[in-house]
């Protein structure tokens, strides 16, 4: 494989942009912008204390509407089903980035995939995103450039699409779950190791929810609380249990489940979302603990604490979530494509490109997937 420098990639991106997205996108966006101002989202790099000891350098984060102080974790973005959502990304990283709106059905030129749907957003540049989400639920956003590294350093946030027809909860807790891979000096260490990538992935060293260790959130006693969970870690598969309260699974990956299930243990893998309806304990001060129970000893993910006098609510009183529209697909003439996922057996590394390790470990239909992902 010929070595492709970043500079060459950038040039190709610029050319692609002229054909692929630039010309087609801009007029529609400026029209949309006339209605109201977009959210301002900056991608930037900085020092953040993650492990409670000292600042980690080179953390990548999103700042909303110029707020660069306060909670450094990715802002929870909110949209409304069927209404225009607009966000202007400004790239203050020292490498290209984009935003991909994971799980949202949108016009292809808003999907945030460089070389495919839009040009790179290079350092100092901006890109205007605009779409009207057709589905309500818990979604998320992240870059699609040097993706595992940028996500590993922090860039992954929750996008909530609301719907007035959804039942009214007494509270809401949004949990963005992820690990950071830090050394004893609180600094990032080698993010991916071939030895691990060939097995279950390279795990982080610091577990967090909303970039905090075992955070605790106050919720109304005896109330019904919607807990929106995103597994934003690039490696970890969570096995979630909630101790101390009754809970039901009401949506998975942004979409309401046909029938609610009592939460026993829910398995969610990287990129997945899980929405729970939690009936908070009645007594003030009672704690409910969300735990990751496998593979070893249970780890606390986050805690909920009941506050106030009991609202005496009942899970059975909760109406259904508004349904998302199905996708009408005519499968009568569909082509069947078998999909065989397997390991590869390459003995030597190839040239590393775009932050990859240069190895391929996994294959689709016996064709090695380039890179370590
Ligand atoms: Cu994604």
UniProtKB/TrEMBL annotation:
Gene Ontology MF annotations: copper ion binding; oxidoreductase activity
Xref: InterPro entries: Cu-oxidase-like_N, Cu-oxidase_fam, Cupredoxin, TAT_signal
Gene3D superfamilies reported in the protein's UniProt record: Cupredoxins - blue copper proteins (2.60.40.420)
Domain Plastocyanin-like: 74-164
Domain of life: Bacteria
PROSITE patterns listed in its UniProt record: TAT
CC annotations in GO: outer membrane-bounded periplasmic space
Record PANTHER family: MULTI-COPPER OXIDASE, MULTICOPPER OXIDASE LPR1
Protein name per Swiss-Prot or TrEMBL: FtsP/CotA-like multicopper oxidase with cupredoxin domain
Lineage of producing organism: Bacteria, Pseudomonadati, Pseudomonadota, Alphaproteobacteria, Hyphomicrobiales
